Amino acid sequence: MADPIILKVAVPVPLPGLFDYLPPDGVSTASLRPGCRLRVPFGSKVLVGVLMQLTAHSDLPRRRLKAARALLDTEPVLPPGLLRLVSWAAAYYQHPVGEVMEAALPALLRAGRPVFQPQTVYLATTAGMQTDLHQMGHRAPRQAQLLAAIRQAASGLSRADVAATAGDWRGALGKLLQKGLCEAVSRHPNCSAPPVASSPTAGPTLTAAQQQAVAAIGAQLGSYATFLLDGVTGSGKTEVYLQVISAVLAKDRQALLLVPEIGLTPQLLARFQKRFAVPMAVLHSALSDKERLDAWRRAASGQARLVIGTRSAIFAALPAPGLIVVDEEHDASFKQQDGFRYSARDLAVLRGRHENIPVILGSATPCLETIHNASKRRYRHLVLPERPGSATHPEMRIIDLRAHAAQHGLSTPLVAAIGKHLDAGSQVLLFLNRRGYAPALFCSGCGWIAPCDRCDARMTLHRARERLRCHHCGRESRVPAHCGNCGEALKALGQGTERMEETLQSLFPGTAVARIDRDSTQRRGSMHRLLEDVHAGRTQILVGTQMLTKGHHFPGVTLVGVLNADQGLFGSDFRANERFAQTLVQVAGRAGRADRPGEVLIQTAYPEHPLLQRLVTEGYTAFAAAALDERRQAQWPPYSHLALLRAEAAARDAPLQFLTHAAKLARQIRGGGVTVLGPAPAPMEKRAGRYRAQLLLQSAKREPLQQLLRSWRASLGELPGARRVRWSLDVDPLELF
């Protein structure tokens, strides 16, 4: 084969495949390595792409190929294992590889910023080292002082270090440079890192089940295996992570911990910092571009031994990976819901296989696909059945709202229980997965309910801001004083977290109530401050949405009240029961995590509902077994594989017309075993002023579906009506909406 002269480059454009370029002028082939960035011409623009392959051949004549403008890196910014992951993800999720690459790189690197910004340091020259500082001090004391400091810094003194010295440092530095007593040298600095614990704390004594889990995972370090760590809430899954990570760090390897929510990151980081005297990096979407680049640099340089992050951290560049942990693996936030629609949990398993390292999937309520994989022995199932120490499982009871009157969403038995637990010096958590003051503004005269004019949805009343807001598109409007139809006064209908906070303050005056939802935690650091008040005992009642269900530890909470279980009992999506069960079990698990027994009260108007009864009497494991049997009979995942084609447009008919052509094409090219369902309008057809429809593809096996998608997706953009709609393909969709 001739010397490779064609560059296959992933360019950040919404087009499939790699693009061919000639090497930049003056750059040797030996300098061109996969994973390096290139500045390349694309149409009228110059973009930053990533070199994926070198080859001797192109489907285009050489005369039609353009040369890359510049090579930006001397070393690959992405290691080989991560390049393989990106390529696989682009192919599996049917997404342009250049846009997938955008998920793997911080924004500043995508813009061409150097991986490591060179830093100027000042070193003493031979003449400077031989200078008599005592004599120099009589003539130029400031220069002598600065030269002494430079001589003492073996690796050089940075400009910031020089500026930190007292006096006229600029003039003194200029004189030293002019006399040849010091010189300026450009170097790549070590990445700055947060301070590490000076005296890490020891962990608690492990239970027998924890010891077995740590031993089983530890035996696989240095080889691939995926473990389902299935532990009841409060059973010490995090302690297992800590022990295994300790063994990974002892082998001088890196560990990656994925968490579902940004709000969990500070408390986890604090816990890990107490245990490990190693540099760490945090990666999540709330960071500024500079903060994200700094964290990425610490991970990519190997300085950060532990990387904690949300979904996108699965693409962190790790030179020495040793372990991947996915905490709360069941959480839907691990699936990206727009753009490049990937599952970080599934990619974690694949990356573990590529890197030949173990993967831990931890949850008290594992998703049904994960349980199925464990039953098929694709994953090893480790169970933590009990809470450590004297902590016990909370007692769960149902309150029948048909037999007990409720005022403002609180039944008499629940109000009495709240008072009892508060009198005992405990804290109370109330779960209501509905933010705002009230879910509807209602006219009792004519029945009008305030609608969103851009969605098939009602507006939610937010009393604190005196605004109506649509929680689907973000539309806001003022609160009308009277009904526009009949002139009658309007009433707030139903309860949201804002109204529940007001009710609790009225029922329990003098008791500190805190609300945790997306509205109350918008400002940076607000979530951390609210949780600090809870842990310090300054808050007695905590009311909030599902943000409270995700991994939080509240040792003072002994009562959990689920205010409206009926919200989750009658969903139309085939995953609705699973999501409800996970949420209920997770929020119930916040009670009784210390030495005091916990109690869970569930308000419902349907106490005989079989799902609710099974969860309360038999637990999540029994629910999962029954739910998997139902999925098997109905041939829903994990017993089949799905892909969902969505389309939306400003005109009602355009999405259905496009999807009708797409369905016809899919039926023409499909292999055996692929079923085409639809098209049909989305359950919420109108959202944000656009009409939506969808087309579902289902297959008992993954490969026939992938084969169809490869040829089908390449033709979708050429179908009639494709340019009149915005369409997207979602492989393994979590929500059929």
Bin the strand percentage: 15-25%
How would you state the average pLDDT, rounded? 90
Total number of beta strands: 32
Radius of gyration: 30 Å
Shape: globular
Structural class: alpha/beta
**Main sheet: which strands, in order across?**
11-12-10-13-14-9-15
Low-confidence stretches: none
The rounded distance between the terminal residues' Cα atoms is 51 Å
Specify the biggest β-sheet: 7 strands, parallel
Oligomeric state: single chain
Counting DSSP H or I runs of 4 or more residues, the number of helices is 22
Helical amount: 25-40%
Topology:
Blueprint: E1 6-10, E2 19-21, E3 37-42, E4 45-55, E5 70-71, H1 80-92, H2 97-104, H3 107-110, E6 119-124, H4 126-130, H5 133-139, H6 141-152, E7 157-158, H7 159-164, H8 169-178, E8 182-187, H9 208-218, E9 225-231, H10 237-250, E10 254-258, H11 265-275, E11 280-283, H12 289-301, E12 306-309, E13 321-327, H13 344-355, E14 358-363, H14 368-375, E15 380-384, E16 395-400, E17 406-407, E18 410-411, H15 412-423, E19 427-431, E20 440-443, E21 460-462, E22 467-469, E23 476-478, E24 490-493, H16 497-507, E25 513-516, H17 526-535, E26 541-544, E27 557-562, H18 576-588, E28 599-604, H19 610-618, H20 620-634, E29 641-649, H21 653-669, E30 674-687, E31 690-699, H22 702-716, E32 726-731
Parallel strand pairs: 9-14, 9-15, 10-12, 10-13, 11-12, 13-14, 16-28, 19-26, 19-27, 25-26, 27-28
Antiparallel strand pairs: 1-2, 1-4, 3-4, 3-5, 6-7, 6-8, 17-18, 20-24, 21-22, 22-23, 29-31, 29-32, 30-31
